[in-house]
Design a protein that fits this description.
This protein has about 350 residues and is an alpha/beta fold. It has helices at about 15-25, 45-55, 70-80, 100-105, 130-135, 185-195, 215-235, 240-255, 265-285, 290-320, 335, and strands at about 5-10, 30-40, 60-65, 85-90, 95, 115-120, 155, 195-210. It folds into two domains: about 5-210, Spore Coat Polysaccharide Biosynthesis Protein SpsA, Chain A (Alpha-Beta Complex); about 220-325, no CATH class. Helix 1 packs parallel to helix 2 (about 45-55), helix 7 packs across helix 10 (about 290-320) and helix 8 runs antiparallel to helix 9.
């Protein structure tokens, strides 16, 4: 078997990191290399890393530290730079992998055309309405060819990572982390532009234990919208479908202002657009039931508005030159992706 390197960025999640590392130590695939990058933690993370190193002296293990913190993707890039494996798998510190997780990922590299593989991310039972609303965010639907990759459960050929994961976010304010915020979609587009297949390994499963409160829920919405705007601006991609639905609904509502007789039709149209967005993302993409979709509808309306605000704010900052981002054309991406999606791009649940 070929050596596989697993890169785990972490910050201030010592108890969760301990569970993550224990699961990696129990992997059925050998040989295995584990690289943990501590992004300036202020809790007991260094002690957890040292205890793990001592408990598993025969496991190839490297612990790194960023001081000051640099962010999730720069941490991954440090891990990539030291990775010795033919494949590099990525997992987050709040994930617990099944024992055969690495084995299932690597087994999907059935030919040299396969550049990356992504697996199944499971959600824990929701603690509140915000957890329920975001359940399924990392779901990759279908079989065979994947329409996206998920950074907390993916594996890439090391030879395709000579540079690094995208660090363009370092040129703009804020932090684009991996939870549905477009950095892994950037990698997906690059792999497809080079003609590589990206496959789904349905049995490569990991449990993502990440809970939310109201503040983190809406903060993620705003940051997600900003990340989507940067990705679209960079590669000249069409607007997000759900943002078009929301904008159309507001246009109908504004159209009723000078003509009160149009108020009722406008409200109906807005409801149809909002309903279409909810069905598309929550039921079709995230696999929720109708009852669950109706339960989360009020908070998701707020989520979509916060996401749209983040999207438009970032586009404005780019248009005004406040934030700088190089524009890139990836040959063949738009044409190739149009066979999978009429919008000409990889779609993802939000």
């Amino acid at each position: 078997m070929q050596l596989v390197s697993v890169v785990v960025p972490t910050r201030d999640r010592a108890p969760m990191l301990a569970r993550c590392l224990d699961a990696l130590a129990a992997q059925t695939h050998t040989p295995l290399e584990v690289i943990v990058v501590d992004d300036g933690s202020t809790d007991d993370t260094p002690a957890v890393i040292e205890r793990f190193r001592r408990a598993h002296p025969h496991l190839a293990f490297t612990g790194l530290r960023n001081d000051p913190p640099r962010g999730a993707n720069p941490s991954r890039n440090r891990g990539i730079a030291l990775a010795r494996g033919a494949f590099v798998a990525f997992e987050d510190d709040d994930c617990i992998a099944d024992p055969d997780w690495v084995e299932q990922l690597v087994s999907a590299f059935v030919s040299a055309r396969v550049g990356a593989v992504t697996g199944t991310v499971l959600d824990p039972p929701p603690r509140n309405i915000y957890d329920l609303a975001l359940a399924g965010t990392h779901l990759v639907s279908g079989t065979g060819q994947a329409r996206r990759v998920v950074a907390c459960n993916m594996c890439v050929r090391r030879a395709l990572l000579p540079g690094k994961l995208d660090e363009d976010r370092a040129r703009v304010s804020g932090d684009m982390s991996v939870s549905g915020r477009s950095d892994e979609e950037d990698l997906y587009l690059k792999l497809k532009a080079e003609g590589f297949d990206v496959l789904i390994a349905r049995e490569a499963r990991t449990l993502h234990i990440h809970h939310h409160a109201r503040g983190s829920f809406y903060r993620q919405a705003k940051e997600s919208g900003g990340a989507a705007a940067r990705l679209g601006y960079k590669y000249g991609l069409p607007p997000r479908l759900e943002l078009l639905c929301l904008a159309s609904g507001h246009l109908f509502a504004l159209g009723a202002l000078p003509a009160p007789v149009m108020l009722a039709p406008s409200v109906v149209c807005f409801g149809l657009f909002a309903g279409a967005t909810l069905v598309y993302n929550e039921i079709w993409r995230k696999g929720k039931s109708w009852r669950q979709a109706l339960r989360i509808a009020p908070v998701m309306v707020g989520y979509y508005h916060a996401r749209t605000y983040g999207y438009l704010l970032q586009l404005a900052r780019l248009a005004l030159g406040i934030d700088q981002l190089e524009r890139v054309r990836l040959p063949g991406v738009h044409e190739r992706e149009s066979r999978f999606h009429p919008r000409g791009r990889a779609r993802e649940p939000i």
